[in-house]
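hiii, so i know i said id send this last week but things got crazy w the move. better late than never?? heres the sequnce for the chain we talked about at the cafe, plus the structure i predicted for it. fair warning i was half asleep when i ran it
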Amino acid sequence: MKILLAITGASGSIYGLRLLEELLRAGHQVTLVASQSGQEVCRYETGVDLGDSEALKLLWNLPDAPVTIRNVTDLWAPEASGSAAPDAMVIAPCSMGTLGRISNGISGNLIERAADVMLKEHRPLLLLPRETPFSTIHLENLLKLSQCGARIIPAMPAFYQKPESLDDLVNFVVGKLLDQLGIEHSLFQKWGV
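okay and structure toks below
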């Protein structure tokens, strides 16, 4: 599966990194694009440089992993066209600024344009909003995107799993993203199984 993963400037870049790791381990072809603030927040929260694909692969000892990094300003990238759209797109985390621009059809960068392409082509667009509390404007934008076909997966870990670590909480949310993509995982035990 060809997946476009976007990381924006909301707190919670660990969700995007963990998802990237799981997708690469499963052998999916991933294109990564991060907003400028997404890169800065990720570097601040995790110490990871999203601009270095070799360093990312070495982070998880996956030297042959199929990952491509795109610049957020590259509107000539294949992912900006419906004729070359990926199979799915995930924005994790998704800032409210990015979400608002997408919900209003504003495509000023590759993340926004690719999301627009996913909506118009009726392909899976998964958004992991990371904000609290939500304002009425946030809720209206989320509703509009849901009505347009986007899947909203908030960063809300469950506690019925009796998490013992931060990794357990992150894995639950990332597992929910993988569930929506139809990708098998063992990040958490499903209820009743």
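btw Helices lie at 13-25, 36-46, 53-59, 96-103, 110-120, 136-147, 166-181. thought thatd interest u
miss u guys!!
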